[in-house]
């Protein structure tokens, strides 16, 4: 370009690098960077540990495991008097028909822990006349009931239910054993029952109570079934993940020696795997033709807790087929338009393979990152559970008739003699929920927010540490004049030591910026969920725009951070300077960025897609029982898609972990390559350090040294 325009271009995008004969890769003599952020990060970690200790001292995970009776005690908890009473029994299940149940998640009736659910019809008045029946009946009564007490007195004090009916345990709760005979709802084979007060009621009157109580725990039911599926299939899930890890490792090793061939194999295999997915979806779609109920639309079906129902509908397979076909077409079009660029990207992948060959320990670094991330996730999850269960039991007044004290807090220990009981004789003081009014409980939501924020910060820090470590190791390979003689003996460990010793603050700074953006996205999602029922069109549009903008901002921050860490690993400067230098370097070479870097990322993504596809197909045929050889081996599950989806998602993360080494190597070599073009000109005094394969692709040559 003309000299004037060139100066204007470089003025906007920084000055190009000058030749420096002393520069031989990552700077060894460097100082600590972003010290203030390092101190802030250490203080935040210490505070995070304090929050965890506080949560562990106050929390009680049993609250989410065991059902709770009216006194706030846990049914079936080992080491307690209720250890042999694992099931929750409702005195009057029909009171669960109140709409308030759906708002307060509590039935306004006494609930107590019992050994097993009632198995026969019985009223208190009838049982009182027979000693054996009354002894059986008392197992469903509160303590203090004696044979000398009259039935009216027992009912007046609310010590026993007015009736018992055949029930079955469901999620550790007793629900009436409802059935249907000739289109009529029955309970215990009878369409009517005595409510214990001399009234004959229809069995269908129980439906509302059972339905409301079921709605309250329906989500928990699905979670419990999914949990049971995990307990039945965790062994096979681990085997599937091991297969994914071995497959990923095999691909990486083959790329090391057969980069060009493996890239084309990956491309062809991805096309074939997606093509098979389209074929399989079509076969399922065709097989359901004419089947009763298969033409129901997804909109008509609505949400179902049994997700296997969706696989019996033709529209589901049609949707899968269309999605896969669109993906297939997009990939084919990209390959057609990028066919020439792929050759250049293959040369870069070959060079990345050589670099990894000289730094083989880099292949195992993702395992270290995985262990650190597992620790961060575990700490966050445990702390979140303890925080969410660190509330105290809150008791409220529940009543059938009008009462001024309705839904106010009460003390069950002295409620029978309280003024509330005197003014509202039919009221009861029952356990409502877990809460609290102390300073700790008031700021509990703040502690939960801090737990989530530190989770993002720590997870991003671990990821950033991996990026900077690998960048330093691969940069030392590129700038070594004689490979591997001019490289450190242990490049990964040397780079890890430099990153932690000098640049903890820089890593904390970059990950803090990213965490702030991510937590804002979480808050926007939370706000959208809260306003879903009341928002107008403008609010909906505004929230949608904000979510889109912050999604784009998060991607941009990740891009800036990644290149900043590479520049920090090489030059040892602070975050802002490195981010600016890396961004301007890419801006001065925008065409090469589009040609090389993004096409290479696309090829590596195809590799991850292939591994996920292969492992996913294997998991589908194994867990669904479609292959007779696996029918006796595969576990029997509620939802066979649970382990399949788990294997597919985790396989992607495993493949991403291994291929991230390649991606980081490519990005590092790419920035080094751009710097090489600016620093050197191929002369004898300033030779290019890029390999001969890249020089050929870019038509760059090193001039022969002049004869001495």
From TrEMBL:
Pfam families registered for this protein in UniProt: Choline_transpo
Chief location category: membrane
Coiled coil region boundaries: none
TM annotation in the entry: 33-56, 234-255, 261-279, 317-338, 363-387, 452-480, 500-524, 602-624, 644-674
Intracellular or extracellular location(s): Cell membrane; Mitochondrion outer membrane
Task performed by this protein: Choline transporter.
This protein's name: Choline transporter-like protein
Naturally occurring in which organism (per UniProt): Perca fluviatilis
């Amino acid at each position: 370009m003309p000299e004037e325009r060139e100066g204007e271009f470089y003025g906007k995008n920084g000055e190009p690098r000058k030749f420096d004969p002393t520069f031989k890769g990552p700077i060894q003599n460097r100082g600590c960077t972003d010290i203030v952020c390092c101190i802030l990060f250490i203080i935040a970690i210490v505070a995070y540990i304090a929050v965890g200790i506080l949560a562990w001292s106050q929390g009680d995970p049993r609250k989410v495991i065991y059902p709770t009776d009216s006194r706030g005690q846990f049914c079936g908890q080992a080491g307690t008097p209720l250890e042999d009473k694992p099931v929750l029994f409702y005195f009057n299940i029909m009171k669960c028909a109140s709409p308030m149940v759906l708002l307060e998640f509590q039935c306004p009736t006494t609930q107590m822990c019992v050994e097993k659910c009632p198995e026969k019809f019985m009223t208190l008045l009838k049982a009182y006349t027979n000693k054996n029946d009354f002894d059986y009946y008392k197992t469903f009564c509160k303590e203090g009931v004696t044979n000398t007490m009259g039935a009216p007195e027992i009912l007046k004090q609310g010590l026993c239910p007015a009736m018992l009916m055949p029930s079955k345990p469901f999620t550790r709760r007793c629900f009436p054993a409802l059935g249907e005979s000739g289109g009529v709802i029955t309970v215990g084979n009878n369409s009517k029952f005595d409510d214990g007060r001399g009234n004959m009621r229809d069995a269908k009157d129980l439906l509302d109570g059972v339905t409301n109580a079921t709605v309250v725990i329906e989500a928990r039911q699905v979670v419990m079934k999914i949990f049971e599926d995990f307990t039945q299939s965790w062994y096979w899930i681990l085997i599937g993940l091991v297969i994914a890890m071995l497959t990923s490792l095999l691909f990486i090793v083959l790329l090391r020696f057969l980069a060009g061939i493996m890239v084309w194999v990956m491309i062809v295999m991805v096309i074939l795997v997606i093509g098979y997915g389209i074929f399989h979806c079509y076969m399922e779609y065709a097989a359901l033709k004419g089947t009763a109920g298969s033409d129901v639309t997804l909109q008509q079906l609505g949400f179902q807790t049994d997700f296997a129902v969706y696989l019996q509908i033709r529209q589901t397979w049609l949707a899968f087929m269309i999605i896969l076909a669109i993906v297939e077409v997009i990939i084919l079009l990209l390959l057609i338009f990028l066919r020439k660029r792929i050759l250049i990207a293959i040369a870069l992948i070959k060079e990345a393979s050589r670099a990894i060959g000289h730094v083989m320990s880099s292949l195992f670094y993702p395992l270290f990152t995985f262990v650190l991330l597992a620790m961060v996730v575990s700490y966050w999850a445990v702390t979140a559970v303890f925080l969410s269960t660190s509330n105290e039991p809150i008791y409220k007044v529940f009543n059938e008739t009008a009462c001024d004290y309705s839904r106010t807090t009460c003390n069950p220990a002295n409620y029978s003699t309280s003024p509330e009981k005197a003014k509202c004789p039919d009221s009861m003081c029952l356990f409502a929920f877990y809460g609290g009014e102390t300073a700790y409980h008031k700021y509990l939501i703040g502690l939960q927010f801090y737990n989530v924020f530190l989770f993002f910060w720590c997870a991003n820090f671990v990821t950033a540490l991996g990026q900077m470590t690998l960048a330093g190791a691969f940069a030392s390979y590129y700038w070594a004049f004689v490979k591997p003689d001019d490289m450190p003996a242990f490049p990964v460990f040397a780079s890890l030591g430099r990153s932690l010793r000098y640049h903890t603050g820089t890593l904390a700074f970059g990950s803090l910026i990213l965490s702030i953006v991510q937590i804002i996205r979480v808050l926007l999602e939370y706000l959208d969920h809260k306003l879903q029922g009341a928002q107008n069109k403008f609010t909906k549009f505004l929230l949608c725009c904000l979510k889109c903008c912050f999604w784009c901002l998060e991607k941009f921050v990740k891009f800036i951070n990644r290149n900043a860490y590479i520049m920090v690993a090489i030059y040892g400067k602070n975050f802002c300077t490195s981010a600016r230098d890396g961004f301007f370097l890419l801006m001065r070479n925008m065409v090469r960025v589009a040609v090389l870097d993004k096409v290479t990322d696309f090829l590596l993504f195809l590799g991850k897609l292939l591994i996920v596809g292969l492992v996913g197909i294997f998991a589908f045929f194994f867990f669904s029982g479609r292959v007779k050889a696996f029918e006796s081996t595969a576990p029997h599950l509620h939802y066979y898609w649970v382990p399949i989806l788990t294997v597919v998602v985790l396989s992607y993360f495993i493949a991403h972990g291994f291929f991230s080494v390649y991606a980081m190597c490519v990005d590092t070599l790419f920035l080094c390559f751009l710097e090489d073009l600016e620093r050197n000109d191929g002369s004898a005094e300033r030779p290019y350090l890029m390999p001969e394969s890249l020089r050929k692709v870019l038509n760059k040559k090193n001039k022969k040294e002049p004869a001495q």
